[in-house]
Amino acid sequence: MRILHVEGGRHLYGGAFQVLHLLRGLHARGHHNLLACPRGCDLARAAAPVAEVHDMPMHGDADLLMAARLARLIARVRPDLVHLHSRIGADVMGGIAARLRGAPVIHTRRVDNPEPRWLVALKYRLHDRVVAISEGIARVLRDEGLAADRLRVVRSAIDPTPYAGPCARALITARLGLPADALMVGVIAQLIRRKGHAILLETLPALIARHPRLHLCCFGQGPEAAALAERIDALGLQGRVHLCGFRDDLAEILPCLDLVVHPALMEGLGVSLLQAASAGVPIVASRAGGIPEAVRDGENGVLVEPGDAETLATAISALLADPGRRRALGAGGQALMRRDFSIDGMVEGNLAVYRELLAERAGDHNRKDAKNTKE
């Protein structure tokens, strides 16, 4: 099978990392991957061993010429189907391009942002199938009017092995510039408003008073970095909150964290939560979007209502005070990842959608041929 994947993200985290896992899994099963992505992006380099990479200009939702560029590529490489992996212009422009060339097209939806019903009716008409990465996203799409017969759920997945190693605590605290005895709380998310960093910051002065060894490390980058830095200064949290940026050593850091907090207001699923669970780290997170599928309340973490700073602080404080419960929740997370979030399961789930769609297309062609023969 020849599959053209389209991904508009430039950095290798979140959705783009899921694309890489899928490309590797499909390649191992003997399928031929083609990848359209932005020039110079991290995914292009990582995917080169398992995909025929076609990098091109991609300028997001306003890039009206992306449809023409993708249509020319589809005509040239003649894929069996097109799989669109991001909203950064790829969902609409890629859908238009596939329709222009008559190629079957699938779009993976990774976020639970609500969309107007009129937009859902127009946009998703471009796609033969829409794959939601969580039941939470699927519920949003159904509520907005997407027909159930075109919607499938294939959960995101990760390889837990890199995150399940031992903790070299002295090395990691020194690397992050933390005291050797720090209680390390991590947030692993883009620095954007809907991830809820600002809500967490408001709870920290009281939390630090109760837990004097607490240090918060924010891993990620994004447009809110300057505003968060200003708020950290205003709250007097210098030296206690660390904006660590994007880290390529996260797999070494995660096993040393005492707690991961994810106070997001909206979330499709949360790949960072799967990574934390794989590392055996307990999680406090919002009951938003697909998060309850990655964080099972009482199994590998504690869920609180989105935006509820008081309950968030209570849950964090209770876990920081109870190492035994943290260990139990961490072990529960590792068991959950092995059971429900395997990469093989994700790859096979996508393949099932591919095969279903191609069989449907073949049936349509056979019926048309039979009708023409009779006439």
UniProtKB/TrEMBL annotation:
Keywords annotated in UniProt: Transferase
Key word Cell division present: no
Molecular function GO labels: glycosyltransferase activity
Gene3D superfamilies with a match to the protein in the record: Glycogen Phosphorylase B
Pfam families: Glyco_trans_1_4, Glyco_transf_4
Keyword Hydrolase: no
Glycosyltransferase subfamily 4-like N-terminal domain mapped to chain residues: 14-160
TM stretches of this protein: none
Domain of life of the source: Bacteria
InterPro entries reported in the protein's UniProt record: Glyco_trans_4-like_N
The protein's name: Glycosyl transferase
